[in-house]
Amino acid sequence: AEWARLFPESVRRDAIEVERMRAAGAVVLGKTVADDFAYRGNGTSSLSGQVRNAHDRSGTKTPGGSSAGSAGSVACGIAFAALGTDDGGSNRIPAQFCGVVGMKPTFGLVPRTGVIPTWPYLDAHGPLARNVADAALLLDAIAGPDASDGLALTAPWARGSLAMLHDDALVNARLGLVDAHVPRTQMSAESLAVFDRAIGDLRSAGAVVESCAPAVTRANVRTLFTEAAASRGDVAPNANSPAATANALFRYFLAQGVDARRDVERGLAAYRAFYDVLPKEWAEMSRLIDQPYERDPAGVSFARSRGTVVAQLAETFRVQRLDAMVYPTMPFPAPRAVDPWPDVRTTLGYGNWLGLPEVSVPSGMGADGMPAGNLSFVGLPGSDARLLALAHAYERRSRRFVAPVW
User: Fold this and answer.
1) pTM for the full model?
2) What's the whole-number average pLDDT of the chain?
């Protein structure tokens, strides 16, 4: 609400994703509600209040966030698809809690220019949709390089490369069931039953699903990043570097064609209420904003460690001849919006740190009529098309999506 008071006028240009959607012929219906600055996972906006979960008639369950309105609009059928951001689950959390498909693409596949920034070395933007084919269609339209985002991938993007979805893509596919990412002792009987049924669906569709203990897991990923930096004699890697976020914020205002320094200073206190690594005082902040985030030492060290650690994960894929890993997107369904979440560690941040693509697909409803879980297909960077194909085949086999009924 404070940000809206400071900047009441409409922005002067579309984000690059919206530009690309319009160019592909999309009809943009409008903006949806999210957690302030994408910083929470509950779908609570200080401007417009709590977003409701479309499946919950009582109005008490969280839709997840931060991309709550996007997931809710898709679940209700207001839009065929929507955009979500994801720094630590902000696309996949509402996908599971609202029972829709959510995708975090390979880091850098979708440029972030024109979107209020979060953490430049973690943030990935992707689609939310009722089915995988619609998610693939939207991602295909918004993906591809652009020099305005210096961390975006630079390889040319061939439109249509995500469209090859076949119902039999799971036949002979090799999937690693990562036991370390399935906290069975902390999951409810219903959550486990829904997940185990999903694994059965994969096998009945012809997939080879094998227990997998990858070299890199949720439990050790951060340690491996630190060790990789130390072995290089590099500065400590930091995905939440204040300098990178400061420069990204400055570039956001520059892209709007305004007095960027003035507006960063004016909005600093409101923004810093969430991104509290930023300096309190403008004098210190002003020294950070000019250094391009692509050259921030802590961010560059993080990117170098990512390359090293992803190579270790790739070795697991090579040895076990894996097409993808599978595990629950989250190990519990939507709690009430006013309640604390279960104290169960998830794999959400794992995918952001490594820049992995992940497709989250509904895997069933609970006895209470709420979405009970989503199954995640996770692969090495660049395997987006393969993951979408596998997820589509699972979706067609299981048919677990259920639209809200009112």
Assistant:
1) 0.97
2) 96
